[in-house]
Amino acid sequence: MVKCNLSALMGAKKLKISDVVRATDINRSTVSRLYHETTTRIDFDTLETLCNYLECQPGELLEIV
């Protein structure tokens, strides 16, 4: 199973979903699904944009558990 650590990374930086949406132009529903770990896939463009914005590597955002 793949776990998304977006909520933890955002919490560490005290960011809201709206902050991420505004800064990255990623669709709000996409960010929300990743935040709540209800998504079933992620596009490479979205992954790259989030990693650049959060200053992290893909392995920090996604992990296999």
UniProtKB/TrEMBL annotation:
Taxonomy, superkingdom: Bacteria
One Pfam short name: HTH_26
Spans traversing the lipid bilayer: none
HTH cro/C1-type domain ranges (all copies): 6-61
Cited SUPFAM superfamilies: lambda repressor-like DNA-binding domains
PROSITE patterns for the chain: HTH_CROC1 (PS50943)
Protein name per Swiss-Prot or TrEMBL: Helix-turn-helix transcriptional regulator
